[in-house]
């Protein structure tokens, strides 16, 4: 994507240069991704007909559900006439030994040249469980390598992702079907090469296109960037949103919250009484004491090589990005034990990033805290998950030097940076009742960035 | 006929005849911009921009998007003729329901406290259940008009039918007629600026430089502390990159204030008024939401404080009978007398600091037996404990966009009273113990409005 700060004549040059680099390195040519149209959410859900590959009960159940969701579902491998596949779902829940996957995987391969732009490949398989026979574990684990490799082969905005069902979770459970819907839809535009573990049944929303109707969601760092977009997507999905940001960001915060008919709270989340003040505001109208979801989005950057790092660069990053989250959830979870928490981690917290020892610490810490909160909140009926964005086009990343920024965009399977809305969609999905079976997970929204897992 | 004492009925209110509707109006919440210096951050913002923004900030804070409010009542002091329907135009620019009625009002520096008073009365009468009072003023974006001769000629030109008639009219104009006329807020009947008027009042009440500087220092110190304490997190929304009041000097000292040269009353012996103890010209806007307790409860919003009563006063400054900004010395004692209260019954007092001298002269008058007896026919109020006065700073430090000041004070005081009440109850105090706050806002034309709030 050409930098908007470049004068117009230079943009053409940059574009040509990008194209040459892309071809030389065998990288993906970026296409405009299919994203949710707010005036027609999930309609159509996919970019074309959906092929369900697999035999047996589970494959039939998945096909039935998708058919009931008014999708054009096919079981016949022959390419649809004058159309391309919007999605291919491969049901692999019955794999017991390596080799059993071959027929289905090769059938999938035969469809790849017939995929629509921004098509989806989704595998549904069983997670490796304790006590699995070595052959079973081998076959089940193999699926992740298939998905991650395939993600790197797909072109034209198509993605490959997988759902790993834990023992006891049926393909027909709302969490399994809800995750499938998310991965099939435009909501998951920048999610690629990911395997989402589903460990519980979840709950089906009354309206799949507005799954958050009636729920109250708090979003920190709501004034701009990913936070503001998260507010918009949550509101689109039906949530009442309380947006929180530091008092100095109040003007932008008021604007965003009025746009969605939400409420603005000017609050520094690092202040000792932040949790208490948040609860005070939630106790009042229009929320009247209800709080379902807490989105920890607020975060800051103070990049420096560790050799040059000073306390004023280390301490605030840890305080805002990590310590405040833990303190606020501790206070809020006492009053709302069924809290659903979604925290913003980062690929920097997974793979590390030069100049970001402070940020990397904070974001890896967020993942640690998420995994620790998961069983605690589950005891009260809640859950904790994290979203790890890769390179996202925001005001924050616009400050990265041009060349480095361009490389960051290019090193993903989708050959581009994501948009704030892509992260927001993932947050909204994890906040929704159908994601009830996902707990302690880290969902990467990175276009399958090369770094990390 | 033989009595020499003034008959109370002539000067003080007769409490026996007052019959009041049983409804109640409460302050629910407020919002303001940080106040900017003239020509500063908001130089490009109009009154309409600022009023719209401040209403939208209030909407966002309280979750009122799409809500139909009973009435928005707001105004500006420095009015542009194009803003003839300022309040309604502002409403139409906000996320409030476009079916929200609005009225544009003006009572000089008491504009938005007047608006709050009016709305409280309508709410008390049950005519409306919610209302937003507000005000905006820009001294940076002040209207500039043409000379009277040019204006008259242009009007006649518009009516002239023939070219020779038009040429004749144009020929009558002189170069001097073409010069624009900048606005001023000098008193039209005396030609004196407010500062010069206050200098006269200071002389009359022997207000010293030290006393004025002490008021200014306290204003800055207390406003700075309130900002540090986060009081304004729920009362102010930043605007155009300004996040705190631009006039605030948190680090000012008595020595620094004592060094400033005098700017008003310089033809008097020993002038005392400086830029430090006079309010700066400012730009900004403020709004405050009032409602019936039932409306507040339905919306899950707090009733910070009840509007108990209000009183206006006007003084004859034109004939030199009283100082221009001394209205508060009349309105407040009359208000307290009607309510049967003394200064000891009041927990917090807000006196708008047009000049530090206003605060000193007004409180001196409250304590002056002769003044209260002769001018009001009432006993003196006694000495005000300065610990109760402008505890979160006032106009000297915050700035004073004329029409915004009343709403700023009502919202801030109601918040302070609600906090005191909560602290009182937390300490085991009775919820029935009233926590009272008193406001006095002086205004051009010798006017003032006083208001009593109770949490």
From TrEMBL, chain A:
Annotated Ketoreductase domain residues: 215-390
Transmembrane regions listed in the UniProt entry: none
Assigned protein family: Belongs to the short-chain dehydrogenases/reductases (SDR) family.
GO terms of molecular function: oxidoreductase activity, acting on the CH-OH group of donors, NAD or NADP as acceptor
NCBIfam families: PRK08261.1 (NF006110)
InterPro entries in the record: KR_dom (IPR057326), NAD(P)-bd_dom_sf (IPR036291), SDR_fam (IPR002347)
Protein name: 3-oxoacyl-[acyl-carrier protein] reductase
Recorded superkingdom: Bacteria
UniProtKB/TrEMBL annotation, chain B:
Transmembrane segments: none
Thiolase C-terminal domain: residues covered: 303-454
Domain Thiolase N-terminal: 26-292
Similarity comment: Belongs to the thiolase-like superfamily. Thiolase family.
GO MF assignments: acyltransferase activity, transferring groups other than amino-acyl groups
Alphabetized InterPro entries for the sequence: 3-ketoacyl-CoA_Thiolase, Thiolase, Thiolase-like, Thiolase_AS, Thiolase_C, Thiolase_N
Gene3D superfamilies according to UniProt: 3.40.47.10
Protein name according to UniProt: 3-ketoacyl-CoA thiolase
GO cellular component: cytosol
Record keywords: Acyltransferase, Transferase
């Amino acid at each position: 994507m050409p930098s908007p700060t470049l004068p117009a004549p230079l943009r053409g040059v940059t574009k040509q240069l990008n194209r040459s680099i892309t071809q030389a390195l065998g990288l993906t040519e970026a296409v405009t991704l299919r994203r949710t149209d707010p005036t027609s959410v999930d309609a159509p859900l996919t970019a074309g007909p959906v092929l369900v590959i697999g035999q047996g009960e589970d494959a039939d159940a998945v096909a039935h559900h998708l058919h009931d969701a008014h999708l054009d579902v096919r079981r016949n491998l022959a390419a649809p006439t004058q159309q391309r596949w919007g999605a291919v779902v491969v049901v692999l829940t019955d794999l017991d030994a390596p080799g059993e996957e071959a027929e289905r995987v090769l059938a999938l391969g035969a469809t790849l040249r017939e995929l629509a732009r921004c098509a989806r490949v989704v595998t549904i398989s069983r997670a490796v469980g304790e006590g699995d026979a070595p052959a079973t574990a081998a076959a089940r684990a193999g699926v992740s390598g298939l998905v991650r490799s395939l993600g790197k082969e797909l072109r034209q905005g198509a993605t490959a992702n997988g759902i790993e069902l834990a023992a006891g979770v049926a393909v027909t459970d709302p969490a399994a079907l809800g995750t499938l819907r998310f991965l099939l839809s435009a909501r998951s535009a920048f999610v690629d090469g990911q395997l989402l573990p589903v460990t519980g049944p979840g709950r089906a929303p009354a309206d799949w296109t507005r799954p958050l109707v009636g729920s109250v969601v708090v979003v920190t760092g709501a004034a701009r960037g990913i936070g503001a977009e998260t507010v918009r997507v949550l509101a689109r999905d039906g949530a009442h949103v309380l947006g929180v940001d530091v008092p100095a960001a109040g003007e932008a915060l008021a604007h965003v919250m009025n746009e969605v008919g939400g409420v603005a709270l000017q609050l520094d989340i690092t202040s000792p009484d932040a949790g208490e003040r948040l609860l005070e505001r939630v106790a009042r109208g229009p929320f009247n004491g209800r709080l379902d979801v807490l989105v920890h989005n607020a975060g800051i950057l103070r990049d420096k090589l560790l050799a040059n790092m000073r306390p004023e660069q280390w301490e605030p990053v840890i305080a805002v990005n990590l310590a405040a989250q833990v303190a606020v959830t501790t206070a809020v979870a006492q009053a709302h034990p069924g809290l659903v928490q979604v925290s913003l981690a980062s690929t920097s917290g997974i793979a590390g990033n030069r100049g970001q020892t402070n940020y990397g610490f904070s974001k890896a810490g967020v993942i640690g805290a998420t995994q620790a909160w998961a069983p605690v909140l589950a005891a009260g009926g809640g859950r904790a998950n994290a979203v790890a964005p890769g390179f996202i086009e925001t005001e924050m990343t616009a400050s990265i030097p041009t060349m480095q920024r361009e490389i960051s965009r290019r090193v993903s399977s989708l050959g581009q940076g994501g948009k704030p809305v892509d992260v927001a969609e993932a947050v909204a999905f994890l906040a929704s009742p159908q994601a009830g079976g996902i707990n302690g997970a880290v969902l990467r929204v990175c276009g399958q960035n090369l770094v990390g897992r | 006929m033989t009595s020499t004492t003034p008959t109370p009925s002539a000067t003080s209110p007769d409490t026996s005849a007052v019959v009041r509707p049983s409804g109640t109006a409460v302050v629910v919440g407020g919002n303001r911009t940080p106040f900017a210096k003239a020509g500063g951050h908001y130089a490009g913002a109009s009154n309409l921009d600022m009023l719209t923004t401040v209403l939208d900030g209030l909407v966002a804070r309280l979750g009122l998007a799409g809500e139909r409010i009973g009435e928005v009542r707001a105004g500006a002091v420095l009015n542009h003729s194009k803003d003839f329907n300022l309040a309604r135009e502002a409403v139409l620019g906000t996320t409030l329901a476009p079916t929200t009625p609005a009225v544009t009002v003006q009572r000089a520096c008491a504009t938005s406290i007047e608006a709050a008073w009016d709305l409280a009365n309508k709410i008390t009468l049950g005519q409306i259940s919610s209302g937003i009072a507000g005000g905006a003023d820009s001294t940076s974006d002040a209207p500039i008009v043409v000379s009277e001769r040019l204006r008259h000629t242009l009007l006649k030109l518009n009516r002239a039918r023939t070219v020779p008639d038009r040429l004749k009219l144009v020929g009558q104009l002189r170069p001097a007629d073409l010069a624009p006329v900048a606005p001023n807020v000098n008193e039209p009947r005396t030609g004196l600026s407010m500062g010069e008027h206050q200098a006269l009042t200071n002389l009359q009440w022997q207000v010293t430089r030290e006393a004025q500087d002490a008021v200014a220092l306290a204003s800055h110190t207390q406003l700075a502390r309130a900002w540090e304490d986060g009081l304004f997190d729920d009362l102010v929304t930043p605007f155009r990159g300004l996040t705190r009041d631009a006039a605030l000097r948190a680090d000012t000292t008595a020595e620094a204030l004592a060094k400033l040269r005098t700017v008003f009353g310089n033809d008097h012996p020993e002038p005392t008024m400086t830029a430090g103890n006079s309010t700066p010209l400012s730009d900004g806007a403020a709004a405050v939401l009032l409602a019936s307790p039932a409306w507040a409860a339905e919306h899950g919003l707090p009733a910070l404080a009840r509007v108990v009563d209000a009183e206006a006063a006007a003084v004859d400054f034109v004939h030199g009978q009283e100082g221009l900004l001394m209205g508060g010395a009349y309105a407040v004692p009359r208000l307290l007398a009607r309510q049967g209260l003394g200064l000891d019954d009041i927990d917090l007092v807000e006196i708008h600091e047009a000049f530090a001298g206003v605060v000193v002269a007004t409180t001196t008058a409250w304590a002056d037996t002769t003044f209260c007896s002769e001018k009001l026919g009432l006993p003196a109020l006694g000495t005000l404990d300065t610990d109760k006065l402008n505890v979160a700073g006032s106009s000297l430090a915050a700035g004073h966009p004329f029409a915004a000041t009343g709403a700023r004070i009502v919202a801030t005081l109601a918040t302070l009273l609600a906090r005191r009440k909560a602290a009182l109850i937390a300490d085991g105090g009775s919820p029935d113990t009233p926590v009272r706050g008193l406001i006095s806002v002086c205004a051009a034309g010798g006017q003032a409005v006083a208001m009593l709030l109770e949490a």
